[in-house]
Amino acid sequence: MTISARGNRGHVAYWAFIVHRLSGLALALFLPLHFLVLGQALEGEAALDVFLRWTETPLVQASEIALVFLLAAHLTGGLRLLFVEFVGWRSEAQKMLIASAGGVAAFCALAFALNLM
Amino acid sequence: MSPGAETRLWLAQRASAVVLALCVVVHLVTMIAAVRGGLTAAEMLGRTRGSMMWATVYGLFVLAVSIHAPIGLRTVASEWLGWRGRTADAACVIVGVALLLLGARAILAVTL
Amino acid sequence: MSILAVSVWRGGADGRFQTFTVPRLDAQTVLDVVTHIQRRLDPTLAYRFACRVGMCGSCAMTVNGQPRWTCRTHVANVEENGKLTIAPLAHLPIVRDLVTDMRAFFDKWARARGQFQPTKTRRDDVARVAPSSAARRAVDAAIECIGCGVCYAACDVVAWNPDYLGPAALNRAWTLVKDVRDGAGCERLAAVAGDAGCHACHTHESCSERCPMHLAPTASIAGLKRATALAVLRGDL
Asked: Of the residues A77, C23, C165, C195, which has the fewest C-beta atoms closer than 10 A?
């Protein structure tokens, strides 16, 4: 056993990593379900509609909004990584990149939520 | 796995990320624009049925995600579950193939 | 006179924290606190220091959960309601009390090919390297590392992946990759590529946040990612 590094987690880039990893995990778990649901269309429109009616409950709608946020967050966080890794390090740009990533993701989720209502 | 092979895996993940970035933007815009007060099968299928364009876009999407997701999951398994080596790599391939097959089925379901 | 309640790690991996009462003084550093404990309260306390003026990095320890140079950490900046917690650096085996076994840290430095490989002899002309060249500026931005281990202790990937070479070793490898005089080229890129190398970095930036020399190993590691990717595309790796 060695001492842990628990104190190193306050800075913004660390939270950006956590959001990116957890959103990736959530999306990876969601995707097979998404494909299976869409595959319902093979049984015809009615079969798909049965499922889509079920998604109109508030809990499912809230989950969908969350998923849109997670997708947008994973995208924007990923773009930040591509920037850091391929374009290079600009220390002033770091926090700005993370902030804009969060902002765009939140915007997407909001736009989706508003359209859902 | 050799350093060269692991570098190639990383490159594949980043390259598929770029493809996904484009596909996800299309998907997000479509979702936000299309879902007005709920979605019906008719609305969705009206857009995708018989469309070569959507088949291509979603085809690319499924292919890229089948590369991108397993490589990411492999890293998470290695770091947070301590699961490394041949069995972990094999599981990663299985996940990729599963996503590819389920995704292809979903595309056929909505475009044919 | 105000006092500090200082919790200090004692023993090895299976040790525990022991609390000492230390007088609080003006302009006091954490190293001053540790020194006071060892000289006046418990001579069996083991700890490392050397220059005590922020040049050598020997006094690096975990203070209130963060790796820092204790000689450059003012108590006023870290104490929490008169309390302080001091432990050895994270991610390294504990020898005793506040002393860690630094061998793994330096072994990884060697595994990353962090040594200069010369291509000339004393009979050749001195190498001419323009300080303003892009390559040399990249080296200069990362060269001041003194091997203190703070970045290694701050890095979560080091904790999650025992083979991970770590920020310092990779940062040093980068300075050599960009050194136009160095001859280890492809072998070094092979040494730093892969799951134990630069590709395991997830840009947490904890290393760059904590580095007392204000270096950015994250940037160096990103450079290694580009260099190894280019090598793969060229067929060299």
From this structure: C23
